[in-house]
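Thread: quick sanity check before group meeting

JM: Hey all, I'm pulling together slides for Thursday and realized we never actually wrote out the predicted structure for the chain we discussed last week. Dropping the sequence here so it's in one place. If anyone has concerns about the input, flag it before I start.
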Amino acid sequence: MKILVLQHVDVEHPGIFRDFFKADGLGWDTVELDAGDPLPDVSAYDLMVVMGGPQDVWQEDRYPWLVAEKAAIRKFVVDLGRPYLGICLGHQLLAAAVGGEVAPGKTPEVGISTVKQTQAGHDDPIFRGIADPVDVLQWHGAEVVRLPDDVHVLASSDACAVQAFRYRDSAYGFQFHVEITEQTVSDWAAIPVYAQALDAALGQGAAGRLKSEVAAKLPAFNRTAKTIYDNFKGVLRQAGLVHAQK
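JM (edit): ok, ran it. Output follows.
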């Protein structure tokens, strides 16, 4: 299985999913779009993983590569019908690529919060074995505000109605973060726009407090990530991309 990872800032990478990929003997190609890396021919890949970043979906004038990225995502999931996993900005880009709309959120979500599954989420294999509601890490100011009728919303929160969704059978977007590691908060708090959002939401000096809170919950976060990863592998098995382990 050939995996393409699209990143928008070097410290916002697949996180603990890299450990899961390695354990399964999977390699991946990383494209750092913010650093000017060119997009490859996406038809050469079986799975696309798109991460978060400080950019917004609509900032095409400031980040012209967003135009090509959204076109590549649309080709991959709409035209080719291949599996996709998007987190935060990657979730929003998927929504935009399939005909949805992303806008500034009414209430930015930063810090630890809970998300609750919809009925469609309860019925979807991706959330099998996941607590409901479940604690997650949030760090976003934009949100998906509209989706096409053929998209299934899987989870929501009080501040953000679309926390997770599925397009067709194997393209998933997650607004919240499940990939976090012990370095995540420190790495992200070093990005000025992220630090500003953190202080605005949680008060001055919030990075240290959030780092401690995340550390205390990290084992649970990592279990959630592993369950979602294993569930996603089930989706990939249905697509014929991975085989059941003996």
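AS: nice. The radius of gyration is 17 Å. The mean pLDDT is 95.
JM: adding both to the slides.
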